[in-house]
User: Fold this.
Amino acid sequence: MGVAISDWRLAQTVSKLGQLGVVSGVALEVVMVRRLQDGDIGGHVRRALDAFPFRDMAARTVEKYFVPGGKAENKPYKAIPIHKMVGAKKLHELCILGNFVEVFLAREGHDNPVGINYLEKIQLPHLPSIYGAMLAGVSYVIMGAGIPTMIPGVLDGLARHEAVSYGINVSGSKPGDDTLTRFDPQNFMEGDHAPLDRPRFLPIIASNVLAVTMLRRSNGTVDGFVIEGPTAGGHNAPPRGALQVNESDESVYGEKDVVNLSKIRDLELPFWVAGGSASAERLREVLEAGGAGIQVGTAFALCDESGLAEEYKRGLLGEAVAGTARVVTDRHASPTGFPFKVAQLDGSFSDETTYLSRTRVCDLGYLREVYRKDDGKLGYRCASEPIANFVAKGGIEADTIGRKCICNALMTNAGHPQIQRDGAVEKALLTAGDDLAEIARFIPDGQTSYTAKDVIDTLLSIES
Ligand SMILES: Cc1cc2nc3c(=O)[nH]c(=O)nc-3n(C[C@H](O)[C@H](O)[C@H](O)COP(=O)(O)O)c2cc1C
Assistant:
C-alpha cells in the first residue's frame, strides 16, 4: 500500500508473524529523503544506509539530506529531480537507496521473506528501484496497474548486475521510436558483488485474460498471481465492457469483472485473492478453490503499525466505528485514468471545494504521461498539473476535470506533507477499500485501535 502505508514497520511485523509482509515500492526515494529531513527519528534510515554495499553513495546521501533534529515545520522539503526517460544519475541513486532501506528494515530481526509492490503505471523509476530492493534481498516483486510483461526479464538481468531496459508507454509514439528506458548497475556499483537472488514475480491481475497474457507474453518466469477485485483499496482495474456509472458517478462493476478462479487454478501457479477478502471464511473459500491465500490491504492500513499518519488513522477509524465511513470509487481523481477508491474525510481532498482551493502544481511527477512532441522529442504531462500547461502540451482539457494531485496527497497521508511556495500545506487524499465500513470488527473489546496481530489472528481463526 503506497505511499509508505505498508512501510517497513508494518511489513516487518507481518513477516515476523509468519505471513508475507509487503512494503510499498512507490516513491521510496522521496520517502527516504523526507524521513532524513525529518531528523530520521530512531536512526532507522541511517542504520539501513550503514549496511548499504556502495558506501560512497550512501554517505553522500546522508550528507546531503539528513537534518539533525528535523527541518522546521514550516520549511519545505528539498526537491529531488523528477523522473524522465533518461534519468538523472543522482535520482537513480536515491531510488536504489530508498528501496534498499525499506526492504532492509522490513527484513531486520527475522528470516522470513519480504515482498515489494510497484504500480506498473509508474514506469520510469522501475529499474533502479527494483535493483535497490534486490540488493536488500527482497523475495517477491508484486506489480499491478498495468501489464508488466517485461519485469521477469528485468529481474533476471538485475540478479546478474547486468544492464536492463524497460518499455515505456509513450503517447503518440511512432513505429521505430526508441521508447526504452535503460539502467546499468555497473554505473553505480562500487567494486565487485556476487549475483543477487532473483525474487519471485507476482503480477496483480483482474481478469482471466490478463493472467493468460502475462504467461504468454512475458520475457521470463511469472511465479504466481494476485487476483484483485473492484472492492479493493487503492487503484482498481477499469470495469470491463461498456462504461456504466451509478447515480454518484462511480464506476459500476458487473459479472464480467469476476475472475473465474477455477480457470486460474488450471494455470497451475499459486494465487492469492485480494479485495474484501479479510475474513477467515473468505480465506478458507480461497484455499478450497486452490488458492495459496489472500492479500489484505484496508485492514492493515488502519492498524497501529501502518505508516498512515495518526490523525487520518483516527479519523477513518472514528468514521468506521460511528457507522459513517464512506468510500467512493472515483473515476476522475487519479491522473492514471484508473478508478481510485477515495475514503471520504472532512478536511481532506475528498472534499471537492477543499481540493479546488488548491493551486495546481505538479512537482513530484510520478503520474506524468510521457508523450511524443511533433518534433519527435519527448514531453511529460499530468492531468492534474495547471490546466493551461497541460493543454499547451497537447492534453485534453476535459481530462483535467476532477483530477487530483495524488502524488502530493499520498505523501501527506504518510506524514510528510510538502509546503508549497504560497505556504499552503498539501492536504491528504485517503484511499481504502469498501471493507473500511466494517473495519471496527478488528478492534478488541475495550480498546480504540487494533494491531496487525489482531488482524492476522482473526484471519487465521478457523483455518485448520
Ligand atoms: C491505503 C491503500 C493503498 C494501496 N496502495 C496500493 C499500491 O500502491 N499498489 C497496489 O498494487 N495496491 C495498492 N493497494 C491495494 C492493496 O495492495 C490490496 O490489494 C487491497 O487493499 C486488498 O483489498 P482490501 O483493501 O479489501 O483488503 C492499496 C490499498 C490501500 C487500502
